[in-house]
C-alpha cells in the first residue's frame, strides 16, 4: 500500500493540459499508438466477419440470387419464343436480387442496431470515442462487403443466364447493359443496405429498423396497386415510378412505366437519400448519449 | 488521474448527478460508494464520454475522454459485463477491441490468460455465466495495459474465489502506480480493497476521504443494554446524565459509554440487567447512516425508507 491520502481534496484541481504525464505513476511497455480510421476499419472488419448473422444473411442472399436466377433461366430457355431478341437477357437476374435485397437490409441494420441491443456499443465507443469514425468505419466495411457479394453473385448469374439463353436466339447484351446489370445493381443494392445501416444507427432498434426498411421497399408499390381512383392517378404513377423494385428494374431497362427515373437515375437517387440520412445519423450520434 | 469538476447530469426532471467535484489519484484504489441509483454508473459513463454532462467537466490525465489519442492504453473500463455481442467469441471480442486501438494481437492471449478464460476463448460470449462475463469485461479493461482502471461493481456475480482474485488484482494494479477507481454499493467490500473513499447519495458528494479517516469518524462504539426493569434503568441513566438511544425490541444503546460504568451504575441501584455488551457499529451501518441522511433532505422520501432512517434517530 502506498502513501496516506490527503483526507479532503478540495477545490478546483489544476488542469494539466500536457500529454507528457506529470500525473502518471505507471508507464506501460505497450507502445502508444495514435489511433486513426484504419484501426477502426480493421476492428469493424473483425466484427462483421465474427458473427453468425453475417454468414446467414449473405449466404441466403447468394442462394436466392443464384437459385432464382438459374431457375428462371431454365424456365425461360426451355420456351424459347418468350423473349424477343429486343429484350435484355440480363433482366432475369432481377428477381433474385429483389428478394435478396431483404438480406442486405437485415445485415445493414444489424451492423449498427445490434450493438445497441447487446450493449456492445458502449464498449465500442469507449474503445473509439470518435463516434463519427465508428460510423464511417462501419459504413465503409459494410458497403464493401455488400458490394462485393452482390457483384460476384450478379456476374455469376448473368454469365449463367446468357449462356443458357444463347442457344435460343436471344441476343448478347451490350457493354452498357453488362455494366448496369452487374456494377450498377450492385452499387444500388449496397447503397440500399447502407441506408439500412444508417437507419439502424438512428433508430437503435433492429426489429424496428428492419421493418421500416422492408416497408420502404414494398409499401409504395403495394399501395399504388390499390389506387383505382382517377384523381389519384398521378400519385399512383409517382409511387410506382419511384418504388424501389421499379428503380431496380431500371438497371435492366425493364421499367413498369415509361415515366420516372431512367438510365443511372436510381443510383443518384439512392446515393442522395443515403448521404442525407448519413449526415443526420452522424449529427444525432455526436449529440446523443450512448 | 481522473478529475471531476461540478459534474452534473440531468435526465428530464431528475438530477442524476449533482455537481460532483473530486479527484481520483494514482497509486491507490479509490472506492466509489453509493446506494443503488445514487448516480455511480452515470458518473462513470460521463467519465468515458458516453453520456454528455449537462454541466461541469471531467478530464482524464488533463484531457477530455474524446481527445485521448490512445483511449484503451490511457483508461480501461468495465462498466457492464453484458456489454458484449453474445454471438462473438471471447477472443474475437477482445481482438476487435485491440485492433481499434492498434494494440498488438498478442495482448489478447495475455489478458485471456490473466483472467483465466483461455480455455473458453473460442466459446460465444452469450453462453458465459455472469462471473465469466465479468472476467471477460476485466480482460477488456486490461487489454491496453492502461494507466487508469475503472470498474463498475466488478464483484457482482463472482464466486468467493473470484472476489478474492479481483481484490488482489485491484490492489496490485494500484501498487504498480496506476489509478484504480472502483464502484460498489457494499461498504464491506470497499473496506477490504479501497484506501480512499468517495461516497455519493442522490447524485451528490457525501464524503471524499481516506478509508482510515472514514472508519475513525463513522464507526460508532456503544454499549447495548437490555433489562426487565426498563423504566427504572432509564431513570438511573438519566440521573447520571447519560443519553440513551432506543434501538427497538426493548434494547437500549448508549453511545460512547463504558460497559463497566453502566454495569456498576445498575448494580448500585439494584437494576437487573439481561444484557450488557460493548459494541462497534459496522462500516456498513455507517454508510447506511450517511446515505440515509441524504435521503432525508428530500421531502418526498419513500415512507418505508423514512421509517428505516428514523430508526437511527429516535432518542428517548
TrEMBL record, chain A:
Source organism, top-level taxon: Bacteria
TM regions (residue ranges): 55-78, 90-113, 134-161, 181-203, 210-229, 267-285
Transmembrane helix as UniProt keyword: yes
Region (Disordered): 1-20
Entry keywords, A to Z: Membrane, Transmembrane, Transmembrane helix
KW Membrane (keyword) present: yes
Protein name (database record): ABC transporter permease subunit
Protein source organism: Streptomyces tropicalis
Lineage: Bacteria, Bacillati, Actinomycetota, Actinomycetes, Kitasatosporales
UniProtKB/TrEMBL annotation, chain B:
GO MF, one example: ATP binding
ABC transporter domain residues: 2-227
Annotated PROSITE patterns: ABC_TRANSPORTER_1, ABC_TRANSPORTER_2
InterPro entries reported in the protein's UniProt record: AAA+_ATPase (IPR003593), ABC_transporter-like_ATP-bd (IPR003439), ABC_transporter-like_CS (IPR017871), P-loop_NTPase (IPR027417)
Sections of the chain in a coiled coil: none
The keyword Cytoplasm appears for this protein: no
Transmembrane parts of this sequence: none
Pfam families assigned to the protein according to its UniProt record, in alphabetical order: ABC_tran (PF00005)
Record key words, sorted: ATP-binding, Nucleotide-binding, Transport
Protein family membership: Belongs to the ABC transporter superfamily.
Protein name: ABC transporter ATP-binding protein
Lineage per the UniProt record: Bacteria, Bacillati, Actinomycetota, Actinomycetes, Kitasatosporales
Amino acid at each position: 500500500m502506498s502513501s496516506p491520502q490527503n483526507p479532503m481534496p478540495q477545490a478546483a484541481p489544476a488542469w494539466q493540459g500536457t500529454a507528457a504525464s506529470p500525473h502518471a505513476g505507471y508507464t506501460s511497455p505497450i507502445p502508444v499508438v495514435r489511433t486513426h480510421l484504419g484501426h477502426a476499419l480493421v476492428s469493424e472488419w473483425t466484427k462483421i466477419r465474427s458473427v453468425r448473422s453475417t454468414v446467414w444473411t449473405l449466404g441466403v442472399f447468394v442462394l436466392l440470387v443464384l437459385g432464382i436466377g438459374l431457375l428462371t433461366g431454365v424456365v425461360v430457355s426451355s420456351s424459347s419464343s418468350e423473349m424477343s431478341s429486343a429484350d435484355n437477357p440480363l433482366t432475369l437476374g432481377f428477381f433474385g436480387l429483389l428478394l435478396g435485397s431483404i438480406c442486405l437490409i437485415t445485415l445493414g441494420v444489424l451492423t449498427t442496431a445490434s450493438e445497441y441491443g447487446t450493449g456492445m456499443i458502449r464498449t465500442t465507443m469507449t474503445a473509439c470515442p470518435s463516434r463519427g469514425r465508428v460510423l464511417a468505419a462501419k459504413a465503409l466495411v459494410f458497403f464493401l462487403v455488400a458490394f462485393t457479394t452482390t457483384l460476384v453473385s450478379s456476374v455469376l448469374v448473368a454469365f449463367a443466364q446468357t449462356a443458357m439463353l444463347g442457344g435460343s436466339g436471344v441476343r448478347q447484351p451490350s457493354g452498357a447493359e453488362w455494366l448496369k446489370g452487374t456494377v450498377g445493381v450492385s452499387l444500388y443494392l449496397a447503397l440500399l443496405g447502407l441506408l439500412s445501416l444508417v437507419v439502424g444507427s438512428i433508430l437503435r432498434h433492429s426489429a424496428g429498423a428492419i421493418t421500416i426498411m422492408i416497408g420502404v421497399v414494398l409499401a409504395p408499390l403495394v399501395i399504388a396497386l390499390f389506387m383505382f381512383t382517377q384523381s389519384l392517378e398521378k400519385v399512383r404513377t409517382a409511387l410506382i415510378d419511384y418504388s424501389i423494385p421499379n428503380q431496380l428494374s431500371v438497371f435492366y431497362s425493364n421499367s413498369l412505366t415509361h415515366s420516372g427515373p431512367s438510365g443511372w437515375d436510381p443510383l443518384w437517387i439512392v446515393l442522395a437519400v443515403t448521404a442525407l440520412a448519413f449526415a443526420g445519423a452522424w449529427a444525432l450520434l455526436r449529440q446523443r448519449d450512448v | 488521474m481522473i478529475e471531476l469538476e461540478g459534474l452534473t447530469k440531468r435526465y428530464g426532471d431528475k438530477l442524476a448527478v449533482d455537481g460532483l467535484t473530486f479527484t481520483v489519484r494514482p497509486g491507490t484504489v479509490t472506492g466509489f460508494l453509493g446506494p443503488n441509483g445514487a448516480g455511480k454508473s452515470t458518473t462513470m459513463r460521463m467519465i468515458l464520454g458516453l453520456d454528455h454532462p449537462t454541466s461541469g467537466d471531467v478530464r482524464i490525465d488533463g484531457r477530455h475522454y474524446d481527445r485521448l489519442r490512445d483511449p484503451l492504453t490511457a483508461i480501461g473500463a468495465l462498466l457492464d459485463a453484458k456489454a458484449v455481442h453474445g454471438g462473438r467469441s471471447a477472443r474475437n471480442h477482445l481482438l476487435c477491441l485491440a485492433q481499434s486501438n492498434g494494440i498488438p494481437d498478442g495482448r489478447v492471449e495475455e489478458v485471456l490468460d490473466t483472467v483465466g478464460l483461455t480455455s473458453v476463448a473460442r466459446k460465444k460470449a452469450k453462453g458465459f455465466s455472469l462471473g465469466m462475463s465479468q472476467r471477460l469485461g476485466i480482460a477488456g479493461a486490461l487489454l491496453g495495459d492502461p494507466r487508469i482502471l475503472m470498474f463498475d461493481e466488478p464483484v457482482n456475480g463472482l464466486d468467493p474465489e473470484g472476489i478474492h482474485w479481483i481484490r488482489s488484482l485491484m490492489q496490485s494494479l494500484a501498487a504498480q502506480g496506476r489509478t484504480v477507481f472502483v464502484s460498489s454499493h457494499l461498504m464491506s467490500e470497499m473496506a477490504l480493497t479501497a484506501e480512499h473513499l468517495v461516497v455519493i447519495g442522490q447524485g451528490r458528494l457525501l464524503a471524499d476521504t481516506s478509508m482510515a479517516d472514514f472508519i475513525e469518524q463513522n464507526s460508532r462504539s456503544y454499549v447495548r443494554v437490555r433489562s426487565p426493569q426498563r423504566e427504572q434503568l432509564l431513570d438511573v441513566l438519566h440521573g447520571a446524565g447519560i443519553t440513551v438511544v432506543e434501538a427497538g425490541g426493548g434494547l437500549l444503546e448508549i453511545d460512547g459509554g463504558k460497559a463497566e460504568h453502566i454495569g456498576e451504575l445498575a448494580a448500585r441501584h439494584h437494576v437487573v440487567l439481561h444484557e450488557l455488551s460493548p459494541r462497534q457499529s459496522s462500516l456498513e451501518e455507517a454508510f447506511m447512516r450517511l446515505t440515509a441522511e441524504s435521503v432525508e433532505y428530500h421531502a418526498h422520501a419513500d415512507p418505508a425508507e423514512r421509517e428505516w432512517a428514523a430508526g437511527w434517530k429516535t432518542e428517548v
